[in-house]
Write a structure and sequence with these properties.
The complex is a heterodimer of chains A (752) and B (238).
Chain A (H helix, E strand, L loop, with lengths): L10 H5 L6 H11 L5 H10 L2 H4 L4 H4 L9 E3 L6 E6 L2 E9 L1 H6 L1 H17 L4 E11 L7 H19 L3 E8 L8 E11 L14 E6 L9 H4 L4 E2 L14 H16 L5 E4 L4 H12 L3 E5 L12 H6 L5 E6 L4 H10 L3 E9 L3 E6 L2 E7 H5 L31 H9 L8 H4 L10 E3 L6 E4 L9 E7 L2 H6 L1 H18 L3 E10 L6 H20 L4 E7 L3 E6 L2 E6 L3 E10 L16 E7 L8 H7 L11 H16 L5 E4 L4 H11 L6 E5 L10 H6 L4 E7 L5 H14 L3 E9 L1 E4 L3 E4 H10 L2
Parallel strand pairs in A: 4-5, 8-20, 10-13, 18-19, 25-28
Antiparallel strand pairs in A: 1-2, 2-3, 3-6, 4-6, 7-11, 7-12, 9-11, 10-12, 13-14, 15-16, 16-17, 17-22, 18-22, 20-21, 23-26, 23-27, 24-26, 25-27, 28-29
Helix pairs in contact in A: 7-8, 7-10, 8-10, 10-13, 18-19, 18-21, 21-24
Chain B lengths: L6 E6 L6 H11 L3 E6 L12 E4 L19 H11 L3 E5 L1 H8 L6 E3 L7 E9 L15 E8 L3 E3 L2 H9 L3 E6 L18 E5 L5 E4 L17 H13 L1
Parallel strand pairs in B: 1-2, 1-3, 3-4, 4-11
Antiparallel strand pairs in B: 5-8, 6-7, 6-9, 9-10, 10-11
The chains are: A alpha+beta (752), B alpha/beta (238).
C-alpha cells in the first residue's frame, strides 16, 4: 500500500486508497471547514469505514431483537453479556477476520482469534472457550490445502498458547470462497456480575493509559482494507495484516484481569480495528467525554512513525484504559510484574474533543461527535436476477439413482459432511478442565468451574449455511439460528442468546444488499421465535474479488454467509445427551416431520448436478414446539441419543449416529414405509429441510415409560415414528441401503 | 494425615496456562493445600512444600525451544536444590519440557512427527509402580489421559535410553486400549513410545499427558487422578 505521508499535498493521491467515496470526502471537508490533511483523513477513513461504522448495515441491525431473557448487556460494548446465575455472567461475541486471512492465512486467523479474545477480557471476563466458523474454496482447488492448514495452524497457535480451549466450529468448502475465504472467530468468557468493565465509564481527570505491546507499522489501514474488495492483480495488501504474539496477549490477559480484580481500571477498550483511533474516539464518545492524547508518549517499535501511522497501526496485544490519578502507580506495578508497557498517554477532559499533542505541541484537535457519527446508508436493494430461476424442485424430473449405496457413500465422504477431526485435534480442547462434550458432536458442552457452580453448564454452537442463504436469503438466515438451536437442544440444553457474523459481498451492489436485508429478517424472525436475542456481532462486507479472465473482468462474490454463534444453558451437565447411538438393540425414532424436499440439497448437486432449487420455508412455530418437545424428552431421561437432520439428510444423521461413538462402531436397520408416507426413497434419505431429529431410546423402556414418551409428544403436537433399531456393524435402510459401518467410518474419518 | 495438611507448590512462569487447572484439581478434587509459586518469588527453601508441580503451558511463549527459557528462571535453581534433597517434583507437558531443559531429567523433546499440535485421548501403560507418582497403581495399569502438545516427541541417545531402562526410570509408555505398545498408539513419534520418565532417584517425573484434565469422571476419565493419589499416598506413608 505504500507509506502514508503526513504531507498535505499527498492527500489527493491517497484519497482513493483510504477507501472513502468522493461524497464522503466532500462531507468531511464540509464538516472540517477545510480539506482534510492526511492525519484527519486517516482518522475519518478508519472511523467511517464499513468495518468500524457499519454504515450500510446499521439500519438493518437495529431491527434485531437485542433484549430480554437473560441478556444484561446487548450490542454496543466490546461484547454482549448474559446472566449465568449465582453472580456469574457470560460474555461473548463472534467476529470475522476474512480479508487478513486470505492475504496471510496464518497471521490473519491467529490475530482474528487474538482480537476476539481481547474483546472478551476487555470486559473483565476470563475467556473460557473459543469456536470458529471457517469457509474455504472448493476442496479440490489447488490453494485450499494451503489455506486450510495455515488457518487451522494460526487458530491453534493463538488459542492453544493462550490456554483457551477451542471447543467447536465448522469447516465448509465451496468454490464461491476460492478467492475469499472466511474466518469467523468466537470467544466466550466468564466474569462476576459486579466485575464487568466498560468503555463508557471515563471520568473527567482520569489518566488515559496505554498498555501492552508497542506500536509498529503492521496493520495500518486494516479497517479500510477490510472495507474494499480484492483485486488479484494488485495483491499488495500484506502490510495491512497484523502479526500476532499470543504470549504477549497471555501476559496482557493476566495483567488486565489482575488490575481489574484490584479495581485499578475505570474504563477500558481494546485496540482492535483502527487501533488507537477507534479506542480513543469510542471511549470518549461512549463516556460523553473528550481526551488529551500525547502521541510522544505512545510506545513505538520504530522511531520513524508519523502521527497518522501511530493512530492507524493495528499492532496487536494493546489496550487503552482510563484510571484514577491516584491509581496509576499501582496499575503500573501490575503491568511491570507481567513485563508489559504501561504508559500515561493522556487525560480525560470534559470537552467532547480529542486534542492530540505531538513533539510537545498541540498538533490537532478533532471533535468526537463529528468523527464518531459517520454516515449511515440505506443502500438500494434489488431482488437478485438469479433468484427468478430458483423454483421448487420437481422431483419427478429426476430419476432415483440405481445404486443408492454408491450415492450414500459419496455423500457421507463429501468434504462438507466428513469428519473434521483432523482439524479440531490441532486445537487444545481439553484445557480448562471444563469440556464435557468435545468438538465433533452437535454442540460443545462445558461445565461451569466456579466455586459453588454445582452441575450447571453451558453449550456452544456455530452454524450457518450459505448455499441455503443463496437460494433463499430469508430462510438461510432463519435456518442458521434454528440449526444452532437444534444442536444445543439435541444435547439437552436450551438456547439463550446469539451473536451473528454476517459475511457478504459488496453492499454497493443492490442485489447483495437485498440478500443482506432478507437474511437479517430471517435471523430476526427465528431469534424472536426461539427467544434468543442478538447480543453482539459483526458484519463483513466486500467479500468479493475482481478477476481478469481474458479481456473481461468478472467479480466473484461469495454466497451470502450469515453465521450464528449460540449460547445455551443446561442445568446439569451430567444429563447432556450426545448424538451417537449407545447400544445394540436400542430403538430408533424420527421425532418431527419430513418435507421430503430435495431442493437445494447436497444430493441434488452431487447426483443430479443441479441444486438451484428452493429450500423449504421453515415453520418457526413448529420448530419451537419440536425443540421444546425434544428437550422435555431429554430432561425426563428417556433418550440415549439425539441428532438433528441437516445437510446430507436422514442418511447422514443415521450414519453419524452409528460411527461417531468414541469406543465402538455401531450400525442400524431401518425400515421406512415410503409408500404409506407417499415419499420417494431418495427424498427420505437425503432431503435436508426436515424439521426432525433422529433419536434412540432403550428397548427396555417399560410400557409406562413409552406411554409417557407418547404423552410428551402429543402434548407438543409432535409426531414420533419408530423406524428401526441400532445394530452392530451394518447400515441397512429398506432394501436400498446395505453398507458396512467399518467401511463408512474409515471413509468418514479419512477425507480431511 | 489430613489431605489438607499436604502442601503443594505450583510454579507459574509467564505463559504457564495449566496452572489454574492443576490448582483447581489439587485443591478442589483432592482437598490438599496447593498454592502458586511465581517464577520471581524468592522462596529459596522450598522445603515447606510436600511436592512441586511444574504445570503445562507455553512458558515464555515457547520461544527459543519449549521450556528452554523457563529452565533458566531463578525459581528453577530452588527446584533443583529441592529435588537434590529428595523433594517430589512433577512436570506436566511444558513442565516435562522444562525439566528436560533444566537437566533434571535426561533427553530432549522434538516436534511431534505429525508436525502438528495434537490434542486427543491416549492410553498409557504404567511400567514402574515403585515411585511417588505411581505407588497407588498396579504394574501395567492402563490410564486414559488427554495429550495436548506440539513438541512431545521424546528423544535421547542410546546410552541414556539404556540407563533409563536399567534404572526403571521409564514410568509410562503410550499404548493402545488393550495395553499393546504399538507404533499406531504413539501419538507423537516419541522414542520407544515413552510418555513419562523419572530421574534415577524417582523423585522427579515428567510426563506429556495431562493428569489434571483426567481426574474427574465428568471429563471422560478419572485415570489421571491416580497420579495425584499416588503422591498423596506416598507422602502420607513416608
Amino acid at each position: 500500500m505504500g507509506n502514508v505521508s503526513d504531507k498535505k499535498n499527498d492527500v489527493k493521491k491517497t484519497e482513493k486508497l483510504f477507501g472513502l467515496s468522493s461524497e464522503e470526502y466532500s462531507k468531511i471537508s464540509e464538516l472540517l471547514g477545510h480539506e482534510p490533511d492526511a492525519f484527519e483523513l486517516g482518522i475519518f477513513a478508519a472511523m467511517w469505514s464499513e468495518h468500524c461504522s457499519y454504515k450500510s448495515s446499521k439500519v438493518y441491525l437495529k431491527t434485531l431483537p437485542t433484549e430480554g431473557g437473560k441478556v444484561l448487556i446487548g450490542p454496543g460494548e466490546n461484547a454482549g453479556v448474559v446472566d449465568f446465575g449465582d453472580g456469574d455472567v457470560l460474555v461473548f461475541k463472534m467476529e470475522s477476520h476474512n480479508h487478513p486471512s486470505f492475504i496471510e492465512p496464518f497471521q490473519g486467523s491467529a490475530t482474528g482469534v487474538g482480537g476476539i479474545m481481547r474483546d472478551i477480557f476487555t470486559m473483565g471476563a476470563r475467556p473460557v472457550a473459543n469456536l470458529n466458523s471457517l469457509r474455504f474454496g472448493s476442496f479440490s482447488h489447488p490453494r485450499t490445502p494451503y489455506y486450510l492448514s495455515e488457518v487451522v495452524k494460526g487458530i491453534g497457535f493463538y488459542g492453544n498458547c493462550m490456554g483457551v480451549p477451542t471447543v467447536g466450529g465448522e469447516v465448509v468448502f465451496d468454490e464461491c470462497y476460492n478467492d475469499n475465504i472466511l474466518v469467523n472467530a468466537f470467544t466466550i468468557g466468564i466474569a462476576k456480575k459486579d466485575g464487568i468493565f466498560l468503555s463508557s465509564k471515563c471520568e473527567e481527570g482520569n489518566i488515559v493509559v496505554y498498555v501492552g505491546s508497542s506500536t509498529g507499522m503492521d496493520g495500518i489501514h486494516g479497517a479500510t482494507m477490510a472495507s474494499e474488495e480484492f483485486d488479484l492483480k494488485k495483491n499488495k495488501k500484506r502490510s495491512t495484516v497484523q502479526v500476532g504474539d499470543p504470549f504477549t496477549e497471555k501476559l496482557l490477559l493476566e495483567a488486565c484481569l489482575e488490575a481489574m480484580e484490584k479495581k485499578l481500571i475505570v474504563s477500558i477498550q481494546d485496540m482492535g480495528a483502527a487501533g488507537l483511533t477507534s479506542s480513543s474516539f469510542e471511549m470518549a464518545d461512549k463516556s460523553r467525554k473528550g481526551m488529551i492524547i500525547n502521541l510522544d508518549a505512545v510506545p513505538l517499535r520504530t522511531s520513524e512513525m508519523t502521527p497518522v501511522e501511530m493512530m492507524l497501526s493495528e499492532s496487536q496485544e494493546r489496550m487503552l484504559l482510563a484510571c484514577g490519578k491516584d491509581q496509576f502507580d499501582e496499575l503500573k506495578a501490575v503491568f511491570d510484574k507481567w513485563g508489559l508497557n504501561c504508559v500515561e498517554v493522556g487525560e480525560v477532559i470534559k470537552e467532547k474533543e480529542i486534542r492530540f499533542f505531538y513533539k510537545s505541541k498541540l498538533y490537532k484537535t478533532l471533535d468526537v461527535d463529528t468523527i464518531v457519527n459517520g454516515p449511515e446508508y440505506k443502500r438500494p436493494v434489488k431482488k437478485p436476477e438469479y433468484l427468478n430461476s430458483v423454483k421448487p424442485l420437481k422431483t419427478d424430473n429426476y430419476k432415483i439413482p440405481e445404486d443408492l449405496n454408491d450415492t450414500a457413500v459419496k455423500i457421507i465422504t463429501h468434504p462438507n459432511i466428513a469428519s473434521k477431526k483432523s482439524v479440531f485435534t490441532q486445537y487444545d480442547y481439553t484445557i480448562g478442565t471444563a469440556t464435557v462434550v468435545p468438538p465433533g458432536f452437535s454442540a460443545a458442552v462445558l461445565r461451569a468451574n466456579g466455586s459453588g457452580a454445582g452441575k450447571k453448564g453451558f453449550l456452544l454452537n456455530a452454524s450457518g449455511n450459505s448455499k441455503y442463504t443463496y437460494l433463499d436469503p430469508f430462510t438461510g438466515g432463519a435456518l442458521a439460528v434454528t440449526e444452532c438451536a437444534r444442536n444445543i437442544t439435541a444435547c439437552g440444553g436450551y438456547p439463550v442468546a446469539i451473536t451473528d457474523c454476517l459475511n457478504f459481498a459488496s453492499p454497493e451492489d443492490p442485489e447483495v444488499m437485498w440478500q443482506f436485508a432478507n437474511a437479517v429478517e430471517g435471523i430476526k424472525s427465528a431469534a424472536l421465535k426461539l427467544n434468543t436475542p442478538v447480543i453482539s456481532g459483526n458484519v463483513s462486507f466486500y467479500n468479493e474479488t475482481a478477476k481478469k479472465e481474458g479481456d473481461k473482468t468478472t467479480v466473484h462474490k461469495i454466497y451470502p454467509t450469515p453465521v450464528i454463534g449460540m449460547l445455551g444453558f443446561i442445568d446439569d451437565v451430567e444429563n447432556a445427551v450426545t448424538p451417537y447411538f449407545k447400544s445394540e438393540g436400542d430403538e430408533i425414532y424420527i421425532l418431527g416431520r419430513l418435507s421430503g424436499n430435495l431442493g437445494g440439497s447436497l444430493y441434488m448437486g452431487l447426483e443430479h448436478g443441479n441444486f438451484m432449487q428452493k429450500p423449504s420455508e421453515i415453520d418457526l412455530d413448529y420448530e419451537a414446539s419440536l425443540q421444546n418437545c425434544l428437550r422435555s424428552l431429554i430432561n425426563k431421561g428417556f433418550l440415549k441419543s439425539a441428532s438433528d437432520v441437516s445437510e446430507g439428510g436422514i442418511f447422514v444423521s443415521l450414519a453419524e449416529s452409528a460411527i461417531t461413538c468414541p469406543n465402538q462402531t455401531l450400525g442400524f436397520a431401518v425400515n421406512y414405509d415410503t409408500a404409506k408416507n407417499s415419499a420417494r426413497i431418495d427424498s427420505f434419505l437425503f432431503s435436508e429441510f426436515e424439521q426432525a431429529f433422529i433419536i434412540s431410546v432403550d428397548k427396555q423402556l417399560s410400557g409406562r415409560q413409552k406411554a409417557a414418551v407418547s404423552e410428551i409428544c402429543a402434548e407438543y403436537g409432535i409426531k414420533l415414528e419408530k423406524i428401526g433399531e441400532v445394530k452392530k456393524g451394518v447400515m441397512k435402510i429398506n432394501d436400498k441401503i446395505d453398507l458396512k459401518s467399518d467401511k463408512i467410518k474409515e471413509g468418514y474419518f479419512s477425507v480431511i | 494425615m489430613d489431605n489438607k495438611k499436604i502442601k503443594a507448590g505450583i510454579t507459574v512462569f509467564p505463559g504457564s496456562n495449566c496452572d489454574a487447572d492443576v490448582y483447581r484439581v489439587l485443591n478442589g478434587v483432592f482437598g490438599i493445600s496447593a498454592s502458586f509459586i511465581w517464577h520471581k518469588d524468592k522462596i529459596k527453601d522450598l522445603g515447606g512444600y510436600n511436592f512441586i508441580v511444574i504445570p503445562g503451558g507455553f512458558s515464555y511463549g515457547d520461544y527459543l525451544r519449549s521450556g528452554a527459557l523457563a529452565a533458566r528462571s531463578p525459581v528453577m535453581e530452588y527446584i533443583k536444590d529441592y529435588a537434590s534433597k529428595g523433594g517430589i517434583v512433577l512436570g506436566i507437558c511444558n513442565g516435562f519440557q522444562i525439566l528436560l531443559e533444566a537437566g533434571l531429567l535426561s533427553g530432549v523433546m522434538l516436534t511431534n512427527n505429525s508436525l502438528k499440535f495434537e490434542c486427543k485421548d491416549v492410553y498409557l501403560k504404567t511400567l514402574n509402580t515403585e515411585t511417588p507418582f505411581t505407588c497407588a497403581l498396579k504394574k501395567d495399569s492402563l490410564l486414559k489421559m488427554p495429550i495436548a502438545h506440539h513438541d512431545g516427541n521424546y528423544f535421547a541417545e542410546k546410552k541414556i535410553i539404556e540407563r533409563l531402562n536399567d534404572k526403571n526410570a521409564v514410568i509410562f509408555k503410550y499404548c493402545d486400549e488393550n495395553g499393546s505398545i504399538t507404533e499406531l498408539s504413539n501419538p507423537n513419534g516419541s522414542m520407544h513410545n515413552i510418555a513419562g520418565i523419572s530421574n534415577e532417584n524417582v523423585n522427579v517425573m515428567g510426563l506429556m499427558p495431562h493428569p489434571e484434565r483426567s481426574s474427574e469422571k465428568i471429563l471422560g476419565s478419572e485415570d489421571g487422578g491416580y497420579i495425584f493419589q499416588s503422591i498423596i499416598k506416598y507422602i502420607k506413608e513416608r
